[in-house]
Amino acid sequence: MSSTGTAAATRAEYCVVACAEAWRGAGEVLASPMGTVPTIGARLARLTFSPDLLLTDGEALLLGDVPAVGAAGRVVEGWLPYRKHLAMVAGGRRHVMMGASQLDRHGNQNISCIGDWARPDRQLLGVRGAPVNTLNNPTSYWVPRHSKRVFVERVDMVSGVGYDRAAEAAPSARRFHRIPEVVSDLGVFDFETPARTMRLRSLHPGVLLAEVREATGFELAVPDEVPRTREPSAEELRLIREVIDPKGLREREVPA
């Protein structure tokens, strides 16, 4: 038990808080989380330190309330048809948190195929909207299973654009390009280095630096002292457990 009398936070709950932090200070932008933990994180941010954040029902309605995961919203404050959604995306007014089948040191993401593109070993989702997402609005990533299969030296195909490829584009094409953070079940990462390569920003409690290095297929930038991912407050834990995710779906995505 913690000093507040609340059961200690689980690894999944640290991941939720780390995802929520991606939207801290975001203002009135559209949050587009993909995955259970990022969805809980976006809703936690809306209920705490980012009250202006815009949330949708996953389709075309802007929500005025913050329902539990899996429940329908009861307050609708707007309609966001597809054409309006695309206009918002193109203007940098959205922050999406996507998944990744592969990520490299520069933040290039692959969700399309594994192996040679001409004859892949495995077909995945396809490029989808990843190029538009990454060049037109801030894009973070959520990886529930940190491994060398995901964190690779070179992605097999570029779906989401990383910092090295964005640098090759015209200034007008990269003006909204930004990768604020990558959250995995082991820690939090960013690209705040001179070369814009992936850096370890924090380790989740109980995780060793050696574990992260062993599970990463390239050399990470590591500061001299690596902080721990911040602990959820008692109120944040209450919101996660009682309001946003009372069914405990987060624990299925990141088992204890």
UniProtKB/TrEMBL annotation:
Keyword rRNA-binding included in the entry's annotation: no
The keyword Transferase appears for this protein: yes
Keywords: Transferase
Coiled coil: none
SUPFAM superfamilies associated with the record: NagB/RpiA/CoA transferase-like (SSF100950)
MF terms in GO: CoA-transferase activity
SMART domains from the UniProt entry: CoA_trans (SM00882)
Family: Belongs to the 3-oxoacid CoA-transferase subunit B family.
Protein name (database record): CoA-transferase
Organism encoding this protein: Streptomyces cacaoi
